[in-house]
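Subject: sequence -> structure tokens, single chain

Hey, anyone have a minute? Need the predicted structure for the following. Not urgent.
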Amino acid sequence: MRHLTLICGSVLLAASHANAELIINGQAVSSSPITTTPNTNYIPNSNFQSCIANLRSQAISSGVSGTTFDRYTQNLTPDYSVISKLDYQPEFSTPIWDYLSGLVDEERVEKGRQMLAQHREVLNRVSAAYGVPAETVVAVWGVESNFGDISGKYPLLQALGTLSCEGRRQGYFRGEFFATMRILQRGDLREEQLKGSWAGAFGHTQFMPSTYEELAVDFDGDGRRDLVSSTSDALASTANFLKKRGWQTGMPWGFEVKIPAGASVGGESRRNKKSLSTWVNRGFTRVDGTPIIQGNLSEGTQAGLMMPAGANGPAFLVFKNFDAIYSYNAAESYALAIAHLSDRLQGKGGFQTAWPTDDAGTSRTERREIQNYLLKKGYAIGDADGLIGDKTRQAIQQEQVKLGLSPTGRAGQQILKAFRNEAAKNMMQ
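Reply:
Had a minute. Here:
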């Protein structure tokens, strides 16, 4: 739900694109590049306690009682590290094949299948109530928090209070700050439960507080909307989000297609939708050669052509359901990850068209292997967790220079193969 590119609402995702925008639950927060390394010595522009006190009347106007405001702000202290994260833009970019290979790997597919089986009864009721397939709901859960394993560590009141008084887009964060207090005031959650990303997204499926207020539901019937401790509430709220954002029951998100030889695809996009009859008349088919119009689709169904890596990579016709997923965190790569994971959970295979690269992406297992090689070489990159941050990228870059490879900093198949070959040679000596 969002992110400097995608790191805020979906805590699993690393920011990847310069000049990105923080998009959480469909709401934009500008995050233009200020620095290439986090600033840990931030000098505040205002007195934090005075700033918070001055927000009291605004909070009351928004529906926060004076008692609630005083209770949750009287001992509040700032955490200026969130300001440096708001300003931070990473040095490296992430190609879409890297992005997807890390989010939709066999490890996550298998875990997703386990979650489908474990929560089948609840998911069946959720699907019946909202018309969203269980696999799609679980896919959001998997991408957002690895099925609840990673949900963020920042106390929301502290993080949002700091962002309300310092940095850019203070007005936006004040709205989320007040929403957090209204959630507590309503009794849905306790303060100690409210930990999440530095930008305020929290819970199993990483709702921003304002989105929580709008779309969270009490599905387990205990009188509280609890997306932190109640899996039932979290899954149902995710389905409710997608339904309210336009999900069409019984329709696909999209599918991979084959671009006819010589076809002109300039100007085509997800937004530039055309009737399926148009695509059929232009010679498009599904990637396996079967007709585009099948099942509930008709000649008049509108679809847009999406080519995330250009015309030489996989191409997709996408429908309104893809747009619904996209609204969760406005990035096409993010939406494609969820859509693809949902397909894999339904038993479908991977994309048939290869990505246009000679250095394919790696799974989280393979990334941990790369990190372990780097740790053995003495690089201080932290734990081998499969999450590729700047320290890992910088270490890879140094090794690529030594090996005569292009110093991209990518944890791709080329550096993995080089490390494996090096390890094999060392074993033979």
